[in-house]
Amino acid sequence: MHCKPKGDEHLKIEWFKENGIIRKTANIESNGQLLVLPSVVSDDSGWYICAGTSSAGDVVSTKTKLAVKAVSFNFITNT
Questions:
Q1: Over the stretch 28-56, which tens digit does the pLDDT of each residue have?
Q2: Is 16 helix (H, G, I), strand (E, B) or coil?
Q3: Which of 73, 4, 70, 5 minimizes the C-alpha distance to 40?
Q4: Distance between CA 79 and CA 20 in Å, rounded?
């Protein structure tokens, strides 16, 4: 997920998950502007909040919803 809040170019960017925890395998890249969740699972579903804080203490935030839907596979083997 990409986050680029409007405002001061020198924002301190942090990511949060509403009503949950961002799992430890998540990577935050590009000075905090990119949240990467490898191999998403249904527990990753939810609202993610990107908050940028300026040196003056002003906070700008944006929300993104991630919906992970389960996929089932049927394997057929020829014997």
A1: 888 888 899 888 888 889 999 988 888 88
A2: strand
A3: 70
A4: 46
